[in-house]
Amino acid sequence: MNTKLLKKVEELTLYLLQEHQKNKLQEEQLRKLKQNNQQLLFKFNQIDQKLKSKR
Fold first, then answer.
1. Cα-flanking dihedrals φ and ψ of residue 11, to 5°?
2. Which ranges of the sequence are coiled-coil (predicted)?
3. In angstroms, what CA-CA distances link 44 with 30, 33, 55?
């Protein structure tokens, strides 16, 4: 019984480590997407201001 429990604990530990790594990657992707979004919003606002000033 102890051997089975130990094996299960090891499996779950490995699973948690993998999930943690995936989470870190997703957080980095999200950070980059947010940064991209901010840049695009800034550019959009610049273009919008130029168009409004030409009217």
1. -60, -45
2. 16-50
3. 21, 16, 17
Structure tokens given for 14: 């490995």
Residue 20 to residues 1, 9, 17, 25, Cα–Cα distance (Å): 28, 16, 5, 9
One-letter amino acid for residue 38 of the chain:
Q
Calculate the CA 53 to chain-centre distance. 37
pLDDT tens for residues 5-50?
999 999 999 999 999 999 999 999 999 999 999 999 999 999 999 9
